[in-house]
Description:
Elements: H1 10-20, H2 26-36, H3 42-52, H4 58-64, H5 71-84, E1 87-90, H6 98-101, E2 109-114, E3 123-127, H7 134-150, E4 155-158, H8 164-174, E5 179-182, H9 196-204, E6 208-211, H10 221-233, E7 237-240, H11 248-258, E8 262-265, H12 276-283, E9 288-289, H13 293-300, H14 325-334, E10 340-341, H15 342-349, H16 353-365, E11 369-373, E12 376-379, E13 382-383, E14 388-389
Parallel strand pairs: 3-4, 3-7, 4-5, 5-6, 7-8, 8-9
Antiparallel strand pairs: 1-2, 2-6, 10-12, 11-12, 13-14
Amino acid sequence: MLLAQPMIPQETINLIALSKTRGINLVNAKTLVDMFGPIPDLSEMRRELTQRIPDASTRLINALQQVERYLDEAKREAEYAERSGIKVLDIHDEDYPSRLRLCEDAPLVLYYYGQANFNRRRVINIIGTRRCSNYGRELCEHFVSELKRLCPDVLIVSGLAYGIDVCAHKAALDQGMDTVGVLAHGLDTIYPAVHRDIAVQMVRKGGGLLTEYTHGTTPEKMNFVRRNRIVAGISDACIVVESGAKGGSLITADMSKSYDREVFAFPGRVFDMSSAGCNKLIASNCAALLTSPEDFVNDMGWNDTPITKPSAPAIQLELFDNLTDEERAIIASLRDVDKKHVNQISLETEIAYSRVGMLLFDLEMRGYVLALGGAMYSMAHVRPSSGETDL
């Protein structure tokens, strides 16, 4: 049983209140927090709003006039979390998922029951239809089993739903891998109820349960759509095992693409309705064709076999006086490794994926880095701009 959590700070309670305030959408809330940072005083934020955002909409200004009305609810939620051993991760918390923090519609607050580290090196989500076939179950089990052999440290995320979701969780547990379920309701209940035993095992064996919803929130239809962005944003890659022509898996895959995550799909027979969505993703180049765990590991750059190349002295960052702080952070991330995926660079530097891509392109043009294909990069050993070699 988990121990009660330390007293939740006022800044976190304020963010709970802000997340509950009607009239403030996800993107606006994230923009406010990015601009103000930790918010010890809601009234001060309200007073400074028009100074910080001169063109703030009337709707946003009016909504912020109401935010303090939600403080009592926020305090009750914090007290419930403390009693229940639930971790409240606000967006500034070091344990908050760093990948998700970079998304423009990231939740201000997450509620977590478990022990898994969301900021480990490798995180994937495995999703699919609730009406999976034997083929889909076998694919899921085989993939997780082989992934354990190739990359045992991967965290597997899914939605604890019927079908492929719960199959992924079970397969991870069978292989001794950490697995996290992202819920569309509060942590005071489990839906579907038949998965309660699986949820308990996930928590006890190093994984856990994660949600943006406060206790008492019921599993409404729109909550499932909204929670899909967390499944997508928290991960390096999205793997669709089976999916019909419509459904939540395709929504999650689309969200993953919008966050510049890698998307993979297993193909199925053309007449199988449960594979229609996967085949469509592949045919439209929205997902890479996935046939084996080895291909996935290689495409992600997670094969840690060293590449033979000329040795070079350690890179001294002080030589790069003409680089910006962001560029220097990228160079530091690529030091002492043979290659690294853009996703990993983005995670380590906490620079948005799209921004990292632009910076890498510029660094490549100036001779600092090499593009290796498959969104992989390495340090270059020649700097044409100065004529120096072997950096």
